[in-house]
Design a protein that fits this description.
Helices cover 78% and strands 0% of the residues. The protein is mainly α and 114 residues long. It folds into two domains: 38 residues; 46 residues. Helix 1 packs antiparallel against helix 2. It starts with 5 loop residues before the first helix and ends in a 7-residue tail after the last helix. The relative contact order is 0.04. The model has no long low-confidence stretch (mean pLDDT 76).
């Protein structure tokens, strides 16, 4: 029987995604570098514009992901609070919900020492 460690699986998936993202970023960086070298107008200001635009995009993407995580945590807390909300219980409700089981019918007596 194989037991999977879901936390380890999740960490491996995150690490794989991070490595692939780095490889893709390096490929795009190389492509843009070659573009800047081949077009004379872009040789001077191209890398600076590229770095500035990329920084803005990454900052907004990071802020959005952080806000999404906070919103998800707040929603989860609200749902948990709603699910754990106390429901008023009256004696009539308790009397109706008592179910006779094998143990509370007196068939099991735990007071004896064997």
């Amino acid at each position: 029987m194989t037991v999977k460690n879901t936390r380890l699986d999740m960490e491996q998936k995150i690490m794989s995604a991070a490595v692939l993202t780095l490889v893709i970023a390096l490929a795009w960086n190389n492509a843009f570098s070659e573009l800047f070298k081949s077009i004379p107008v872009l040789q001077l200001y191209g890398p600076w514009v590229y770095a500035f635009v990329l920084t803005i995009v990454v900052v907004f993407a990071h802020r959005r992901s952080v806000n999404s995580e906070h919103e998800a945590a707040a929603l989860k807390a609200a749902v948990r609070k709603e699910l754990l909300k106390e429901v008023p219980v009256t004696e009539d409700v308790v009397a109706e919900t008592v179910v006779e089981t094998f143990a509370n019918q007196g068939h099991l007596d735990f007071s004896q020492n064997y």
